[in-house]
Amino acid sequence: MMKVCQAIHYHLEYHKANSQQNTLRCVEFVLRKFNHHFIERTLESVTEDDVLSFLTTLTLNRKQTTKRNRYSVLSSFYNFTISTSQPGLKNPCYNSVIKKIFRTPQPTQGRILEKDTVDEIIFRTMNARNRIMLKTPRITAVR
């Protein structure tokens, strides 16, 4: 029976040795909140409902990308713990409701301007440097 705080400690030590600074900062933020919320509980006692409640509170009024990111941090924490020390533990993040709420956001399509609009923008640009930059054709590589 491993306590939440012990598992978080091991997971953060792993990230300190193997992750970029931004990743570490993000993981620390989510796991410190998780630790504070479930401080004296064992990993086995944290249910899917507890995880859903925690993630909902943590991501209230946030964008879908942030919600997904925080869900991913918690899910990877459980996967790490399962693969390193608790092989019999079930990941409470693997619930169809939780996955649906914290799904990957739909990508937004960039707005494409018509040629006449672009010509008008170039024509109205007063700064010569900016006008030259706008006139220069952009070549994009097709992969």
Explain what the structure shows.
With 143 residues, the protein is mostly helical. It has a domain at 4-101: Orthogonal Bundle (DNA polymerase, domain 1). Helix content is 62%, strand content 0%. It contains seven helices and no strands. It has helices spanning 4-18, 21-37, 48-58, 64-84, 96-101, 115-124, 128-135. The protein is elongated. The termini are far apart. The relative contact order is 0.11. The model has no long low-confidence stretch (mean pLDDT 90).
Give the SSE map.
Elements: H1 4-18, H2 21-37, H3 48-58, H4 64-84, H5 96-101, H6 115-124, H7 128-135
The global form is elongated
CATH C-level category of the domain at 4-101: Mainly Alpha
**Beta-strand percentage range:** under 5%
Question: How many individual helices?
Answer: 7
Fraction of helical residues:
55-70%
Give unreliable regions as ranges.
Answer: none
Mean pLDDT: 90
Tell me which CATH architecture of the domain at 4-101 applies here.
Answer: Orthogonal Bundle
DSSP strand tally: 0
Q: Helix-strand pattern, N to C?
A: HHHHHHH
Keywords:
143 residues, mainly alpha, DNA polymerase, domain 1, 7 helices, 0% strand
